[in-house]
Amino acid sequence: MTTKTAAQYLAVAPTTIRLLIGRGEIPAVRIGRDYRIDEADIKKFIIKNKTQV
């Protein structure tokens, strides 16, 4: 998925996704000027960052 699609999926701005990619928190492949992110990696990111209430 693109950074825009990932941002919509997580309800954040595309710049936030690029920041997370830059930090290494979400793995991605750069294609041209944009990134492609595997949906499974987004789901792993969600699971890893869940908080207990």
How is this structure best described in words?
- With 53 residues, the protein is mostly helical.
- Helix content is 53%, strand content 11%.
- It contains three helices and two strands; from the N terminus they run ααββα.
- The chain has a two-stranded antiparallel ribbon.
- A hairpin with a 2-residue loop joins strand 1 and strand 2.
- Helix 1 crosses helix 2 (14-23).
- The radius of gyration is 11 Å and the shape is globular.
- The model has no long low-confidence stretch (mean pLDDT 95).
From N to C, what is the helix and strand string?
Answer: HHEEH
The helix content, as a percent range, equals 40-55%
* Strand arrangement across the biggest beta sheet: 1-2
The proportion of strand residues reads 5-15%
Shape: globular
Average pLDDT, rounded to a whole number, is 95
- Which structural class best describes the helix and strand composition? mainly alpha
Low-confidence stretches: none
Radius of gyration: 11 Å
**What distance lies between the first and last C-alpha atoms, to the nearest angstrom?**
30 Å
